Amino acid sequence: MTATHTGAPARTAALDCFFVRPGEDERDRLAGRRVLGRVTYGHTGRPPVLLGGAPLVRAAMTGAGAERVTEVWTTDRPVRSGRDGDLVYATDGEHLLCSVRVEERGVYREQVREVYERAFALMWRLGHRELLRMWNLVGDITGPNAEGMEVYRDFCVGRAQAFESWSGRIGGMPAATGIGALRPGIDLYFLACRSGRPRHLENPRQTPAHRYPAAYGPRPPSFARATLLEPGSGGRPVLYVSGTASILGDDTVHPGDADRQCALTLANIEALVSPDNLRRHGLAGGWALSDLDCVKVYVRDAGDLQAVRARCAPAFRATADVAYFQVDVCRSDLLVEIEGICR
Ligand SMILES: C=C(O[C@@H]1C=C(C(=O)O)C=C[C@H]1O)C(=O)O
Where is the Chorismatase FkbO/Hyg5-like N-terminal domain (predicted)? Predict the structure, then answer.
């Protein structure tokens, strides 16, 4: 237990998150804060529900025998939750957490477009018009759909269409994760804010994903490399770091070598969160790798887990929440992906 975990209010962001594992009690970490939502990276992919007045997302991200992890999103304000069809959500007046599941289907793009548009419509209606962060947990992500197109590329088409039709109404493309899940279907959850003005950042070492060439699919992925939320009253800036992999420009680097992919991924994140990169975007501040928390490390092959853990352990702060998952990554030659939050 560290000072961060006991949560002195002045140093705690209005929106925060921590991980709990079986046997741990989230109340030990809440320190009087309210739950905005929970995401269980567990064994089953099931539609999200409202549990005790907050969304519970249930994604199949851990295999039998592996420990599930629940990401708990907290706020210092009262929370109100609701449903809109199959979308579940909660808001603290400033932040919105919303989730929906797309069940398994032969071709995803139409349903993905429709679900994204309904989520955007909900944001619009509730007045939370700036996206902060999105997670897309995609079953069989690099497998073929019923037309033979890779499921991830199929998914990207529907998402890009939704962003296109809502551009100008909701804020720009935020930080995101598009990662494999262990059951078919897609679990989606996102965070948005009302009065905050998030800034979406790119990585000087990487081509913006929304400008990837057509070789990677008919429509490029719709996300930014990171999203910065400047402090509200008494808060501190928070940087949401997208799922990041061993990509330079738009090329996968070190195919077949998880250890080197992991090292390059860490270097990519270091450059992304650095003061230099913030300055490049006209922003003050910046972070180091050791500031990363709520870290999720995705490893494609079980045989690489040990090497990746060994590579990551010295990079992150000893007190950081870190969870490892053995799932597919969005390109079949990517073996490792890492995301997190700097604050
Ligand atoms: C690893 C990459 O992309 C992944 C896919 C994402 C998406 O489609 O939302 C977002 C970040 C990563 O999880 C990449 O293109 O660098």
Answer: 71-192
* pTM for the full predicted model: 0.95
Q: Does position 181 have pLDDT exceeding 90, yes or no?
A: yes
Which residues, in sequence order, are CB contacts of 194 under 8 Å at separation 6+?
93, 94, 95, 96, 127, 128, 129, 130
**pLDDT(66) > 80:** yes
> For the segment 13-27, what is each residue's pLDDT rounded down to a tens digit?
689 999 999 999 999
CA of 340 to the centre of ligand 1 (A): 13
Annotated binding site: 152, 159, 212, 225
Choose one of 225, 330, 336 to mutate for the ligand 1 pocket test, by most ligand atoms within 8 angstroms of C-beta. Answer: 330
- The DSSP secondary structure of 226-272, one letter per residue, reads EEEE---TT---EEEEEEEESEEBTEE-STT-HHHHHHHHHHHHHHH
Q: What is the pLDDT of residue 67?
A: 87
Distance, CA of 134 to CA of 111 (rounded, Å)? 17
CATH number at residue 82: 3.30.1330.40
Give residue 72's Cα distance to chain centre.
Answer: 13
Ligand 1, atom 9: nearest CA belongs to which residue? 178
**What residues form the annotated binding site for substrate?**
152, 159, 212, 225
Structurally, how many domains does the chain consist of?
A: 1
Report d(CA 264, CA 270) in Å as an integer: 10
Q: Please give the residue range of the domain that contains residue 259.
A: 3-342
Residue 64: its pLDDT value, please?
84
What are the two backbone dihedrals, phi and then psi, of residue 75, each rounded to the nearest 5 degrees?
Answer: -145, 160
Residue recorded with tokens 């995803």: 108
Residues forming beta bridges with residue 199, ordered by sequence position: 228
